[in-house]
Amino acid sequence: MDFPHTLAELQHGIDTRLQLGAQVAIFRDGDIIADLAVGERAPGAPMTTQTILPWMSCTKPVTAVAVALLQEAGRLDWDQPVAEILPEFATHGKERLSIRHLLTHTCGLRILSARLDELDWDESIAAICAMPMEKDWIPGRSAGYHVATSFYLLGEIVRRLDGRSLDRFVDDEIFFPLDMSRSALIARAPDADVGGFFRTDASEPRPAMDRTGGSSRCPLRPGASGRGPANELVRFIQMMLGRGEWQGRRVLNPRTVDTLLHRHREGLLDLTFGKTIDWGLGFMLDSKRHQRDYPYSFGPHCSGDTFGHNGNQCSAAYGDPRHELAVAFIFNGQPGDDKHNVRLNRINAAIYRDLGLD
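Structure (tokenized):
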């Protein structure tokens, strides 16, 4: 089918210099109905549907599913204290902080004084384990989006319990079963079709990150270093819509999917975003029940049981079970939060309008 409003919004973003190019992939009722690429992956180089682009925080649900696979295997419990797996975490009153607290952004470890991109993996884990909680934080009742810290801990939990690094675990247990061969949590062999990523909040686009999408010392960032084309990222959402199954291949048990997408954090003000936003275990949930507008929403027309995640000023991946709809899109320009949130609402509205769901 045609997507005139969606394509018009993508072109509008290029014309107004919000991005150089973009990808959109849409799945509905069992079929891919859109696999779009527009503009340039870098100046003078066309964007294709196979171009590898950074997902940023759309990586977080992938890490959450990795942890869920260990829970299914009986290796951990959602309410298990992190310190039972990472003993060095038991400092500054953090002894009872649980895996659930990490996944719902309620553990009070938002701000780390050290820059993680200047540390290697072991140094990063040591620095986070030594952190104190924020003052007056009530675990499970105080809420605020954690950009990086809690997901590093989840990645280390996977490594300690399984023996494989998080990126290897995800390759073997998630990406391979879903035929996501161009997706990864760390850079693989050089690929000619890797897209650039640009800051577009000034007069001229300038690189926002290197081509690997991470630091040379610690390229694995469990909450942000995922990359791949939108038409593979949408398969992950399809799997969640299929209650753990994709094209006859089972990744998760249906009960585990239900647990991940349950409202474990409901009606709490998010101190990072300044709005009330509900969360599952690693998944952001539609929160229009609390307010009409909020940052990084899934748009004005999605149903109330929509789940997924957004990436910093660049991407979104979400599923709308009521409409059997999975969507992933990636822009290669970061125009600033305010402009991006306008762009985000416009593209989400356009997709639903093209589908007759507005």
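Residues 203 and 250 are 47 Å apart (CA to CA). The longest strand covers residues 31-42.
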